[in-house]
């Protein structure tokens, strides 16, 4: 990991001056501006351009894979992916809840930069991902890629914000989480509309049977691969599970004991052990889905020309983040450090365990580089090209990583050092609960203490000041180069048409 030094601090401060458009990222260079209009005109695709598949789960913890030490789950296909590719042990998402994390993945930017750090969208929300933002799908579509998304979006449910307006040729799935409807046991007091299932921009079902969603999403993903095997494609599969309430197909539910199945009717009242057993089975179905996608790539002879990455949108609500502290919504490691596996046969060395700091924001510039796409120069992109890290064994391109909770900067990491911005004289409160953040200012050496137990604040005042300077410089730059979320003045709830 890169050492934090006074020279590094000075360099970042210079790079963040108002006259500088872009952060010091070697992959983000001055190139012609890509506009939405240009993104709608595909060019001729070279057969050498790789395909890209992102499999993105919902609320899956750092330890909820066998290859990440999870002996409570069975994930043979994802473990095989890791053996054939790279396990990324310091992979971060830029938000600890759904919408912020997904916005960063799609745009390569911190959520606060694009106005989407505030929280998660509900049904009929007036905000969404701004049409002026350029997504991974749009960058690749401009290079002639076929683009398909099957699963959960959660970046706005108004027509202006749907995947079909953000570069995806095909969309089948949910506009937001499957807990935002009248039948969620924790939301009985809310008057949410029926959960809509969309095909493109049309509601085709209300209250779809969530037990079968993983199978239906997987079938659509496999069909997309088969139909586009002779052209370059980008496939995005954001599963709605294992987010609560936990659903799975009957074939996987069979392994759950009958007494636990009965308790599912009142999920709010079941104990943690019971939820855990159900959760583990939902992970097994995700693993099955990954296997189906990999098998489809092999069956169609495009396995070695396809980059596949598997990861989660944030830390767990029900699952496990051990040995990390914190869960979903937390600025401790367990909230934003997630399991990640990437596979590209013949290119990414097999069996690699990579502990360099990598983020979900890096996928956009990395995919762009491989596809020959031009990055926009009229805006800041926070992600970096990580090909040198994955293929050549280079160090992280990131000088720092910033942990936000909403619009508040809660912590910063540079090299092995992480500083929490709590109160200097505060009391250390609960650390493991959902949404927990440090109530005290604390400094941790993550290479030696990834569980964030040994506060070294008093021992290293110089490191503390350097990290504070990094954070201040970034906040200043972010304020100067932020962009608004999309806005619809009169939002409407998505419903089936009464034909």
Query: Which sequence of strands runs across the widest sheet?
Result: 8-7-6-5-9-1-10-11-2-12
Q: How many domains make up the 3D coordinates?
A: 2
Tell me the name of the CATH class of the largest domain: Alpha Beta
The biggest sheet, with number of strands, parallel, antiparallel or mixed sense and barrel status, is: 10 strands, mixed
Broad structural category: alpha/beta
Tell me the number of strands: 18
* Estimated helix fraction: 25-40%
The CATH H-level superfamily of the largest domain is: Alkaline Phosphatase, subunit A
Beta percentage is 15-25%
Distance between the termini: 60 Å
Q: Could you name the CATH topology of the largest domain? A: Alkaline Phosphatase, subunit A
User: What's the mean pLDDT score?
Assistant: 86
Our Rg estimate from Cα atoms comes to 22 Å
CATH architecture of the largest domain: 3-Layer(aba) Sandwich
Low-confidence spans: 5-46
Based on CA inertia axes, which overall geometry fits?
Answer: globular
SS field, number of helical segments = 13
Question: How is this structure best described in words?
Answer:
- This protein has helices at 6-15, 36-39, 76-84, 98-107, 136-141, 213-227, 250-253, 258-263, 272-299, 333-336, 363-371, 387-391, 461-480; strands spanning 51-57, 86-88, 91-92, 127-128, 146-152, 170-174, 196-199, 202-206, 233-238, 306-312, 340-343, 352-354, 358-359, 401-405, 408-414, 417-421, 441-445, 486-487.
- The protein is of the alpha/beta class.
- 53% of the residues are buried.
- It is 26% helix and 16% strand.
- It contains 13 helices and 18 strands.
- α1 (6-15) packs parallel to α13 and α6 (213-227) packs parallel to α9.
- The chain starts with 5 loop residues before the first helix and ends in a 12-residue tail after the last strand.
- Strands 8-7-6-5-9-1-10-11-2-12 form a ten-stranded mixed sheet. Strands 14-15-16-17 form a four-stranded antiparallel sheet, with helices on one face.
- The model is unreliable at 5-46 (pLDDT under 50).
- A hairpin with a 2-residue loop joins β7 (196-199) and β8 (202-206).
- The protein folds into two domains: 6-15 and 401-486, 2-Layer Sandwich (Arylsulfatase, C-terminal domain); 49-391, 3-Layer(aba) Sandwich (Alkaline Phosphatase, subunit A), CATH 3.40.720.10.
């Amino acid at each position: 990991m890169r050492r934090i030094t006074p020279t590094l601090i000075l360099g970042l401060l210079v790079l963040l001056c108002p006259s500088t458009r872009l952060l010091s990222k070697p992959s983000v260079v001055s190139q012609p501006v890509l506009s939405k209009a240009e993104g709608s005109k595909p060019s001729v695709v070279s057969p050498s351009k790789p395909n890209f598949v992102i499999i993105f789960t919902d609320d899956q913890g750092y330890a909820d894979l066998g290859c990440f030490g999870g002996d409570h789950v069975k994930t043979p296909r994802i473990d095989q992916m890791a053996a054939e590719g790279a396990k990324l042990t310091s992979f971060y998402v830029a938000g600890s809840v759904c919408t912020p994390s997904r916005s960063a993945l799609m745009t390569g930017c911190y959520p606060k930069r694009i106005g989407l750090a505030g929280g998660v969208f509900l049904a009929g929300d007036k905000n969404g991902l701004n049409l002026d933002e350029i997504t991974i799908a749009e960058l690749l579509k401009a290079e002639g890629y076929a683009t398909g998304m099957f699963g959960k979006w959660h970046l706005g449910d108004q027509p202006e914000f749907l995947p079909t307006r953000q570069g995806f040729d095909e969309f089948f799935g949910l506009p937001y989480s499957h807990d935002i409807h009248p039948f969620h046991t924790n939301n009985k007091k809310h008057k949410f509309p029926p959960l809509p299932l969309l095909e493109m921009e049309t509601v085709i079902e209300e209250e779809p049977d969530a037990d079968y969603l993983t199978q239906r999403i997987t079938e659509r993903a496999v069909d997309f691969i088969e139909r586009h095997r002779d052209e370059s494609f980008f496939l995005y599969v954001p599963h709605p599970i294992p987010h609560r309430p936990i659903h799975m197909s009957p074939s996987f539910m069979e392994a759950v004991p009958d007494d636990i199945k009965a308790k599912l009717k009142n999920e709010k009242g079941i104990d943690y052990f019971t939820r855990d057993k159900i959760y583990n089975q939902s992970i097994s179905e995700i693993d099955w889905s990954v296997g189906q996608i990999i098998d489809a790539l092999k069956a169609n002879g495009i396995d070695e020309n396809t980059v596949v990455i598997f990861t989660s949108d944030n830390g767990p609500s029900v699952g496990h983040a051990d040995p990390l502290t914190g869960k979903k919504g937390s600025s401790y490691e367990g909230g934003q450090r997630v399991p990640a596996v990437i596979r590209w046969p013949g290119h990414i060395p097999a069996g690699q365990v990579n502990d360099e700091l990598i983020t979900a924001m890096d996928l956009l510039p990395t995919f762009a580089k491989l596809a020959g796409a031009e990055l926009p120069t009229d805006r800041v992109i926070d992600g970096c090209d990580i090909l040198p890290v994955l293929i050549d064994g280079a160090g992280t391109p990131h000088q720092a990583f910033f942990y936000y909770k909403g619009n508040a900067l809660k912590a910063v990491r540079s090299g092995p050092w992480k500083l929490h911005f709590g109160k200097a004289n505060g009391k250390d409160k609960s650390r493991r609960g959902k949404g927990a953040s440090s109530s005290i200012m604390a400094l941790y050496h993550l290479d030696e203490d990834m569980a964030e137990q040994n506060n070294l604040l008093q021992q290293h005042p110089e490191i503390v000041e350097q990290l504070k300077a990094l954070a201040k410089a970034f906040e200043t730059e972010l304020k100067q180069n932020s962009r608004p979320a999309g806005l619809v003045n009169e939002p409407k709830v998505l419903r089936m048409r009464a034909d």
